[in-house]
Amino acid sequence: MSQTAHKPVALSIAGFDPSGGAGVLADLKSFAAHDCYGVAAVAALTAQNTREVRRVAPVESGLLRQQIEMLFEDVAIAGVKIGLLGNRRNMEAVAESLAAHRALPIVVDPVLRSSSGTEFVAPQDLPLYRRLFFPQARVLTPNAEEAGRLLGIPVATLEEMKAAAKLLQEQGVPHVVVTGGHLDKPADVYWDGQELDVFSGQKVESQSTHGTGCTFSSALLANLIHGKTVKESIVLAKAFVSQAIARAFPIGSGQGPLNHLFRFGENTVRVGISEMVHETARG
To answer: What's the DSSP call for residue 17?
Structure first.
């Protein structure tokens, strides 16, 4: 009996969210929705639901390193997404484990703090985070708050997001996307050192927005793996997130998860590429 057609393999290195809205579970569902096979190395266990993060327990760094190394020993990894890591020892373990694989597309989503205020990366560890992962990232995908924390400056407005994208790219990341879902008119800013692109969309009113950053970055990686350019991958990932929010169904009593698997047997909603406004400016 012959096997089915080959699927590219995407690796998520992130935390475990029991509600399934963020972390490795969100990444794996996003990979599946983009015709990739997802594998994962769990960096931290969390006790959380749709309302709050109550506890974060980083896994032992040696175990995290072994998870990653054993996957690379056995599986042809096509790309890597990095999310929540938990502490500096895990940051170092991940960076060292990926040092020999820098040719792969690596998307770094700097999960620094939860929306409920739980710190995932201590302020004193931010310089180490930049030093370890900026050289490894092909694409960095902070939201406005995360961009501000990485730079040590306030970032909230669209103009501040544009400036932050340029400053982050100057620190050694080839491609930077600063996401702005908090804006009245959501917009993502992309800077590659030459052109500044602003991708605007329509706000989808929903309580199901838990894990949008994780989903965006994993969808972006999946599109890169399938041969799309970074700019194309951003547009497609943004449209995917919008659809996943629009097609979500209620889970929990707080900020519920997106519907990552809306493509499987469901009709889409007219939210996405056709409603985006794309502006390009020379830097």
So the answer is: -
Does the structure show a pLDDT above 70 at 283? Answer: no
Answer whether residue 1 shows pLDDT above 50. no
**65-74, 117-126, 232-241, 273-282: segment of lowest average pLDDT:** 273-282
- What is the tens place of the pLDDT at every residue in 176-199? 999 998 888 889 999 999 999 999
Query: How many Cβ atoms from other residues are within 10 Å of residue 215's Cβ?
Result: 27
- Report the C-alpha gap between 91 and 70 in whole angstroms: 18
- Percent helix / strand / coil, the chain, rounded to 5: 35, 25, 40
C-alpha–C-alpha distance, residues 251 and 209, integer Å? 11
Query: How distant, in Å, are the alpha carbons of 136, 190, 280 from that of 194?
Result: 20, 10, 10
pLDDT single digits (tens) 66-85? 999 999 999 999 999 999 99
- Cα angle 11, 197, 276; round to 5: 85
Residue 117, CA distances (Å) to 9, 111, 113, 259 in order: 33, 12, 6, 24
Sheet of 106-108, strands arranged across: 53-58, 37-48, 9-16, 77-82, 106-108, 139-140, 175-180, 187-191, 195-200, 277-282
> Could you tell me the domains of the chain?
9-282 (3.40.1190.20)
DSSP code, position 232:
H
**Which tens digits make up the pLDDT trace of 104-150?**
999 999 999 876 677 889 999 999 999 999 999 999 999 999 999 99
Contact 230, 173 (CB under 8 A): no
Here the tokens at position 83 are 């999310």
